[in-house]
Amino acid sequence: MHIRLILQPLMATFFAVRAGLSDGRRGRPAFLWTVITHQGDRRALMREAWKDIGKVFVFACILDAIYQLIQHRGAYLGETVIVAFVLAVVPYILIRGPVARVTRKNSHHEAAEKETRHAA
Asked: Which residues contact 54 (CB under 8 A, 6 or more apart)?
């Protein structure tokens, strides 16, 4: 059952990279910064993030509950939610913004190179 400690963050990372690439191509600001500073965009961003990470979070809860039943002969809801949050949501939040920033920066460099080639 220790595979969940690797599998769940990897799944969250996959979804974060996918969302970050999309954000970067659209020129959107970093996810966490926007959630914190732009109250008007917060609800839509959180809904979008939950759409990406919700299944991973639920899967993490189920796996942790199974683990607890096997190891501790009981399930603890608070512990399950905390573990699922740490393994699924935290990696998503930490990775999405930097991926968007790098993608946006690379997109600007590629656009500038194309303009330079066309001008020459």
From this structure: none
Of the candidates 15, 31, 52, 49, the one whose C-alpha atom is nearest the C-alpha of residue 104 is 31
> Is the pTM value of this prediction over 0.90?
no
Residue 48: per-residue pLDDT: 86
Secondary structure class of 75 (helix, strand, coil)? coil
Measured between alpha carbons, how far is 35 from 20 in angstroms, rounded to an integer?
14
| Mean pLDDT within 76-98 | 92
> How far is it between the farthest Cα atoms of the chain?
72
Using alpha carbons, list the distances in angstroms from residue 3 to 16, 19, 96, 117. Answer: 20, 24, 23, 49
In this prediction, residue 116 has a pLDDT band, given cuts at 50, 70 and 90, of low
Q: Are 15 and 93 in contact (CB under 8 A)?
A: no
